Automatic annotation (TrEMBL):
Coiled coil: none annotated. This is Dps family protein. Residues 21-156 form the Ferritin/DPS domain. Belongs to the Dps family. Pfam families: Ferritin (PF00210). InterPro entries: DPS_DNA-bd (IPR002177), DPS_DNA-bd_CS (IPR023188), Ferritin-like (IPR012347), Ferritin-like_SF (IPR009078), Ferritin_DPS_dom (IPR008331).
């Protein structure tokens, strides 16, 4: 039997934070998968630039997925880890076809903005609970997604 968690955050707030982080994890994992898909399937005059950029992005997302899942576990809750769970929790939509390079950029801009909004939605719950580790994680994720969205948007002109 596991011991009771006593990290200074009441159980109801701890569980609410973990649930919000589970949504962020699902969005991040779905975006990781989509970015990897686009890395493999991009074509056109910007192939080399986009292929390498998408690789940088999905590598950063892979690290973020692990960090988010480990924070959920540190809060004493199970981290979702199946495609079914991610599908239920994610607001990022998968790409079921292979769009043009320009459409890939458009979708990824929207998706990075979506993930930034998800992180922002969880922030007040973490802040109210004085959960500084989660607040820091959320702040870092918002900054990363907003910067990536800006860079992708800049490529669209």
């Amino acid at each position: 039997m596991a011991s009771k968690i006593n990290i200074g955050i009441p159980d109801d707030q701890r569980k609410a934070i973990a649930h919000g982080l589970s949504r962020l994890l699902a969005d991040t994992y779905t975006l990781y998968l989509k970015t990897h898909n686009f890395h493999w399937n991009v074509t056109g005059p910007q192939f080399n630039t986009l292929h390498l950029m998408f690789e940088t992005h999905y590598n950063e997302l892979a690290l973020a997925v692990d960090e988010i899942a480990e924070r959920i576990r540190a809060l004493g809750e199970p981290a979702p880890g199946s495609y079914a769970a991610f599908s239920r929790l994610s607001t990022v939509k998968e790409a079921e076809d292979v769009p043009s390079a320009e459409e890939m950029l458009r979708q990824l801009v929207a998706d990075h903005e979506t993930v930034a909004r998800t992180a922002r939605e969880v922030f007040p719950t973490a802040d109210d609970a004085h959960d500084e580790p989660t607040a820091g994680l959320l702040s870092d994720r918002m900054q990363a997604h907003e910067k990536t969205a800006w860079m992708l948007r800049s490529m669209l002109g």
